[in-house]
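Repro:
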Amino acid sequence: MGKSRNTRRGRAAVEAVVEDVDGGRAELVPDRERPRAWTLLIDGAPQSHVDLDDPAYLSFEYQRRIGHVIDLAAPPGRPVHAVHLGGGAFTLARYVAATRPRSTQQVVERDAGLVELVRRELPLDPGARIRVRSTDARAGLAKVPDGWADLVVADVFGGARTPAHLTSTEFLDEVRRALAPGGVYAANLADGPPLAHLRGQIATAADRFPELALVADPAVLRGKRFGNAVLVASDHPLPVAELTRRAASDPHSARVEHGRALRDFTGGAAPVTDAAAVDSPAPPASVFG
């Protein structure tokens, strides 16, 4: 495993950490504006941003939107049981630990080399109740006890694509099994025109959950560009009005679709099963260029 560290003497010590991990070339790049903040990239694609001094700070738009979901999943400050499928730099697990102290969390990240790198360079708060498992996301989810989780967050990408086996109704059956009554599922989805993947994922979630919402940049929803959308699902009513207010007030405002409008958005797409599932589409080169 090759690794390198570029340093500069003076005020700024470590410039970047570059290391080969299981999923490719990982880079931890320091944030010039925040002294102990870092961006994680895999093969040049940004994955996570972490501020070790302020783990409640969420830089990436989609992570901020998931942060709103986390904030609204239970009364403010109440500890939760959370499962994070996809670890990255553990940004959202750190956020839960900071905003909901005494929460108990499981992070499932297949890339053991990445887990080792992040633990070493961006160590977790030893007081946080965060357990990290290096295994496949669906296999790790299968080990979660029935009804244990108040929150399941899926943010899994391999080569900038969501693996097919995490896009099906059978996968969502495992999510529902792990969720407590009233628990919330949030998934980071990525797609671009003609939005076939996104429409299929909404239809799939609608086949398994009675309550849905989708949070995304209006340009993404209109099929004007490739981008992220956060799908939110539960068996109980979602706080759509407050989620809408928060998403609209973000620096990069987003729109929330739900109810009839969201059902119409699927355009008649069919739910995805294991037998028909495919990886999400690869982003165009210009997205990270």
